[in-house]
Design brief:
This protein is mostly helical. It is built from 7 helices and no strands. It has one domain. Helix 2 crosses helix 3, helix 2 packs across helix 4 and helix 2 crosses helix 5. The two termini are 19 Å apart.
């Protein structure tokens, strides 16, 4: 479910109305929740990638700042928690019950720094080398 606040957040994201300081880890998670609520995983991933690239360009950040593996890995994590939890009344309530996702270091339990910060991981999705990211049963 999405709230009116979620819909305003999505509109602001899609119109690049965020500054770099206003779009941090929590906002990335919120965006993942919103897109995964509205779309199947593959579409949510495509919209997230396109939107993040557009936002980076709008902010004048180098295109190389985009990290494909981090984007997909976090989308997979949010998707797993969404399917493992009770339905929520929007992204804010979801992040309250899924607060473990707010720990940006979680990906360190799935990836070694060497793999996660490699050039290959920046440009395409690389599978975790420590432990898989749980996936829900489709």
């Amino acid at each position: 479910m999405l709230t009116e606040s979620d819909r305003r957040f999505l509109a602001a994201f899609e119109s690049c109305a965020f500054s770099a300081d206003d779009f941090r880890h929590r906002e990335h998670l919120r965006l993942a929740y919103i897109y995964l609520t509205l779309h199947p995983f593959a579409v949510a991933l495509e919209k997230t990638e396109t939107g993040l690239r557009r936002l980076l360009a709008h902010l004048g950040a180098p295109a190389a700042k985009y990290h494909r593996t981090m984007t997909e890995a976090w989308l997979r994590a949010v998707d797993h928690v969404m399917h493992s939890s009770e339905a929520t009344a929007g992204s804010e309530q979801f992040l309250e019950i899924a607060d473990r996702l707010l720990d940006k270091e979680i990906m360190g339990t799935h990836y070694t720094p060497h793999v996660l910060w490699s050039d290959a991981a920046r440009t395409s999705f690389v599978q975790p080398d420590l432990q898989p990211i749980p996936e829900h049963a489709a």
